[in-house]
Specification:
mainly alpha; Endonuclease Iii, domain 2; Endonuclease III, domain 1; 14 helices; globular
Length: about 260
């Protein structure tokens, strides 16, 4: 199998398993999204979704969060990994947005990554999931999240009209490819990259997939790594198609 054929097959299978995807992090606006993404580092999305309702109830806007005592924020998000550091970053982020960006979450990679606690991965997610999505699509997603869609799969919830919406808004094509631990692992196992750092793997994946599909492909790889090609006990061997192209099959121990 040539590398081009491998990429084509991976793309085909990812779209088969996850036709329409969206971040599982529940949010109503870009403020709630960036806070949720910041909290999700090294933490399960489900855990974040359990903590954010109380957080947003007490601090519904950036102005409210700016005035918060980090210790009070800690009391709400306790249980999330690195909650003390994240509490400080959330308050500092709100202060900087209000003082330097007139209270509006910036939309570019360069500006987002100047915010405390916001790295390239977080910025990529915020741009891909908010600024690069049509407003109508975002509204549909929010409706479905509040209806209980928590795994990021929307194929059974979107109407035919929803599916016809453009994937990205002109001028807001994601500047990069989101690479978390799942994407890093599956990119290596699927032979899409031989590199071991998120930065280098991101560059490899950006060359392979078209920019208009970076956001969805990244999420599909996240879900693939989360539900099938897991770090421990991967299940690609159970699928006849995935078993042909994923190296995790060779990691299965037979007793």
């Amino acid at each position: 199998m040539t590398f081009e054929d491998r990429v084509k097959k991976v793309d085909e299978l990812l779209k088969r398993d996850y036709p329409v995807v969206q971040t599982p992090l529940t949010h109503n606006n870009v403020y709630e999204l960036i806070v949720s993404v910041m909290l999700s580092a090294q933490t399960l999305d489900a855990t974040v979704n359990k903590k954010t309702p109380a957080l947003f109830k007490k601090y519904p806007t950036l102005k409210d969060l700016e005035k918060a005592d980090p210790i009070d924020v800690e009391m709400i998000i306790g249980g999330i990994n690195y909650y003390k550091t994240k509490s400080k970053h959330l308050v500092e982020m709100a202060k900087k947005v209000n003082s330097e960006f007139r209270g509006e979450i910036p939309s570019t990679m360069e500006e987002l990554t100047t915010l405390p606690g916001v790295g390239r991965k977080t910025a990529n997610v915020v741009i891909a999931e908010w600024f690069a999505r049509p407003e109508a699509f975002r509204k549909r997603v929010i409706e479905r999240q509040h209806a209980g869609v928590t795994d990021g799969r929307l194929d059974g919830f979107l109407t035919e009209e929803d599916k016809k919406m453009p994937k990205v808004v002109a001028g807001y094509v994601p500047p990069g490819f989101v690479v978390d631990t799942h994407v890093l692992r599956t990119a290596n196992r699927l032979g899409l990259s031989k590199n071991k750092t998120p930065e280098k793997v991101e560059k490899d994946l950006m060359k392979i997939f078209p920019p208009s599909e970076w956001a969805d492909t990244a999420l599909r790889m996240v879900f693939h790594g989360r539900y099938r090609c897991t770090s421990r006990d991967p299940k690609c061997y159970l699928d006849p198609e995935w078993s042909k192209i994923c190296s995790c099959v060779n990691e299965i121990k037979v007793y």
